[in-house]
Amino acid sequence: xxxIVCYEHGRPEVMxxxxxxxxxxxxxEVLIEAEAIGVNYVDTMRRSGKHPAAPQLPFTPGxxxxxxxxxxxxxxxxxxxxxxxxxxxxxxxxxxxxxAVEERFTVFCPAAINAEQGAxxxxxxxxxxxxxxxxxQVKEDDWVLVTAAAGGVGLCAVQIAKIQGAKVIAxxxxxxxxxxxxxxxxxxTVDYSKPGWPERVREATGGDGANLIxxxxxxxxxxxxxxxxxxxxxxxxxxxxxxxxxxxxxDELLFGNRAVFGLAVGAVIEDEGVMREAAxxxxxxxxxxxxxxxIGQVYQLCDAAQAHxxxxxxxxxxKLVLRx
Length: 324
Ligand SMILES: NC(=O)c1ccc[n+]([C@@H]2O[C@H](COP(=O)([O-])OP(=O)(O)OC[C@H]3O[C@@H](n4cnc5c(N)ncnc54)[C@H](OP(=O)(O)O)[C@@H]3O)[C@@H](O)[C@H]2O)c1
Known about the structure:
The chain is α/β, with parallel strands linked by helices. The chain is built from eleven helices and 15 strands. The model has no long low-confidence stretch (mean pLDDT 97). NADP nicotinamide-adenine-dinucleotide phosphate (NAP) binds at residues 40-42, 123-124, 127, 148, 150-154, 172-173, 177, 216-217, 238-239, 241-243, 263-266, 311-312, 314, 316.
């Protein structure tokens, strides 16, 4: 089968388009024939070797796929050949025509969405859900500040926060990105490429600042978030797309009764019940039209390097998808 393989860590060019044997599903795994493959920012970090859990070389990148079950391994009870499913790939990479996925990380693709949207749902949806609900305990009338708000996770977070009855300030790196976040429901937007943006967050919240901050950029953006963080507020840190970690001082927590949480979604979904509960909510919101998945661009699988370049240069909105 056709697949992308990294034989070394490094720039996007290290992703080679090659022929490798089609995998066989192990016990409790299904083999999925890919219709669409999701591209995530973490894929770029694993490829470059900057992620602490970068796979051992050589490896096939990619952590999510939407397609049909082609073969079921022994002991699989939930799925049959032909089922349209979404898989969260842990042991095998998704940038391939076929991938074996553990049954416990496989869900049915909601009827309301197509394969490209299916390949965009699991990682962005589960991350936004657990950042807001499981860790952030979002409440009605909270002011929620979402960074990288026009990205894959960000657009889901804006919409899920609104579904929970919160008010949302979408923060992003350009006017166009802010406009997109507003179009999915953000109450206010700030462009953090412009100076003084934390003050605009304070103004939008009547002076108090944001009660809940959903933060994935780190560096100066995280620093700005701390400047517009309400007393008693929470912050969920789940990424550092700038390459620099968020730094939050103990004094900010101590003198403001604030709390900061980290989120590694891979660990949260180890609890299959928690993962399926979130998946059911996401399905229901898609079905009701309350949640929409925005596909920024579709690439051929062999053009995965182009997709990574676009993601790393902040040139993208929504989710990027590969077609095998
Ligand atoms: N902890 C977890 O379990 C988990 C799970 C999924 C995702 N994540 C994290 O969540 C974040 C969003 O993931 P995603 O796949 O949806 O990506 P994404 O948000 O679609 O793309 C990353 C965005 O980060 C922003 N950014 C700021 N500085 C950047 C820089 N120097 N280089 C590149 N991007 C920069 C850009 O938006 P602006 O131009 O608007 O700033 C860019 O569009 C990532 O940080 C990812 O690692 C974490």
